[in-house]
Amino acid sequence: MRKRTLAALATLALGAGGSLLFASPATAADFDFVDTPDPAPTSIDGSTVSRAIEVSGVASTIADVVITLDFHKVDGSCDAPGQGAAYSDEIGFSLASPAGTVVPLVLTYPDQPSYPDWQARPDRTQVTLSDSAATPLGAYPETGVFLPAQALSAFAGEDANGTWTLNVTDSVGADPLCYYGATLTISDEATPPGPNPPAPNPPAPTPPARSPPHSPAQSATKRNRIRLCVNAHSPL
Length: 236
Ligand SMILES: [Ca+2]
Known about the structure:
This protein has helices spanning 2-13, 216-232; strands at 22-23, 30-35, 42-44, 47-55, 62-73, 91-96, 102-106, 125-129, 144-146, 162-170, 177-188, 194-195. The protein has 236 residues and is mostly beta strands. The strands form 3 sheets. Strands 2, 3, 5, 8, 9 and 11 form a 6-stranded mixed β-sheet that branches. Calcium ion binds next to loops.
């Protein structure tokens, strides 16, 4: 009984080639991918370091991207921060998708000229950049949720799976940017239910075979029978 039930279910689920005729609808989900440098923090000073973030298992195309950056801009060195100006206008971040789309997240001076507190010496910072934030980045990146320099919606509709690249910049030598890591959050689209692949149309019914016409010999025999019948009822 159990085997029969399982066989019936398999018949419903599988086509002739063994492939699924109907795919289960997938719901939208959020996927987190964490980049942690070794050692942490990594000191970046007067250069750009590209961090590869491997993404896999995202079921459908990108609906939204959010990223959290964890860093400390210091005077002196990452091991021994000083008490002078940290020059926050040296900070720069950008993010590239596997498809090659690049979104600037934090602009380096002079692309971002509004750093009135460029000499600020903030504490270690976890800044989350999201298109849903209400506030643009201020005088310098600080802990909180802010709008990125350009919209992350540029990634919408792309395949998220593959290698993402986070470019981390400290534009001028002396006073490094100490990079602790990042968390890339990808929200995918829900997969609508439906046939996959579409079920083929049923074959057209075959018309019944017609009887062959009578052969000349059969027709002659039938005529002879009629003639004999007529002769049998004729008056003598
Ligand atoms: Ca520097």
